[in-house]
Write a structure and sequence with these properties.
With 98 residues, the protein is α+β, with helices and mostly antiparallel strands. The protein has helices spanning 34-44, 49-60, 64-81, 90-97, and strands spanning 3-4, 10-15, 18-23, 28-32, 85-86.
Length: 98
């Protein structure tokens, strides 16, 4: 499933190891740090859940098979909250806008 972080009324900005999401639809700001920020940045880079889990496992010395379900659960919650959407990956969106 292709996912995009290009969602109407949502902007994101990275500050060092943190990512701030601003949802202009509901006026709420979200702060992601640690592995949550890494998942967001992985999605922005068009990585799959498995690819993100592998990168987290390599960075932490963990097991990708154990981390993958946790990454998937976080991605599912971001889908439910409207932070990301199913559809064209971000690189494809950027290419069409160029």
């Amino acid at each position: 499933m292709a996912l995009t972080t290009t969602v109407p009324l949502l902007i994101s900005q990275q500050f060092d190891s943190e990512v701030v999401l601003a949802n202009y639809q509901n006026g709420v700001y979200y702060n992601l740090d640690g592995s949550a920020a890494q998942v967001w940045l992985g999605l922005k880079a068009n990585r799959t859940v498995e690819g993100i889990a592998s990168a987290l496992a390599a960075a932490t010395g963990g097991d990708a098979a154990s981390i993958t379900p946790q990454v998937q659960a976080f991605v599912d919650s971001m889908l439910a909250e409207g932070f990301i959407a199913e559809g064209a990956a971000d690189a494809d969106v950027d290419a069409r806008q160029a």
